[in-house]
Amino acid sequence: GTSRAWEWMRDLQAGQEDVSSSLSSGLMMGDRRCEGCRVHRGFLAAFRNVRPLLNETLETCLRDWPTYRVVVTGHSYGGAVATLAGAYLRSVAGVEADVFTYGAPRAGNAVFAESMSAGMGSRRGSGSGGGSGSGSHRLRKGTKTRGAENGGEQAGGPVTVRVTNRQDIVTAQPPMYMWLPSGPVEYAHTTPEYWFEHGFGLL
After folding, report:
1. 6: Cβ–Cβ under 8 A, 6 or more apart, which residues?
2. 8 contacts 2 by C-beta, under 8 angstroms
3. pTM exceeds 0.70 for this model
4. With contact defined as beta carbons under 8 Å apart, do 172 and 189 qualify?
């Protein structure tokens, strides 16, 4: 989670980096590129720091448990990094990883968010938004599903799920629209969102 001052400072590095191809970021590659995808520069830097350990751990786990499904998860700041890790695993490592985040900030622009929601880079995901989200989630009392129409439920493919708690301020960062010295940037969330309107205490 976002618990240290330096993490908050990195959150404020809200400039974006183009991740359309592996040449620029190592986040996308080949026919799984995401044209127009841009992500938060600070979160991308954090992901790059953990990528070597992720690769090493993933190689070991897939060798020892080749039939297991890979799930990436993170809370708050870690949720944004988990979203980028999911994009990397699907697009570069060829692993159809599910992504579950809790109280995560926005990690990239609308093109990136829509692609992640649709199973970005997977063999079955469209990688360009859409999807078959029907909104037919089975939720506990006190939760609402928001944005399911934009995808996030791929038949047989990887899923991207975002859980939020009441009015968590972290989930509103970075703002949807910002003006930086380099010019305007926009951010968007992945879908669907499971929103606990009255808090987790009602579970």
Report:
1. none
2. yes
3. yes
4. no
| Regions of the chain with pLDDT less than 50 | 5-6, 23-24, 29-30, 123-143, 148-154
pLDDT by residue (tens digit) across 74-93? 999 999 999 999 999 988 88
Stretch (H or E) spanning 60: helix 41-64
The Cα–Cα gap between 94 and 124 comes to: 12
For tokens 């995401």, name the residue: 34
In whole angstroms, what is the distance from residue 92 CA to residue 86 CA?
10
Contact at 8 Å (CB) between 76 and 83?
A: no
How far apart CA 102 and CA 110 sit, in angstroms, is 19
3-state helix, strand, coil in the chain (%, to 5): 35, 20, 45
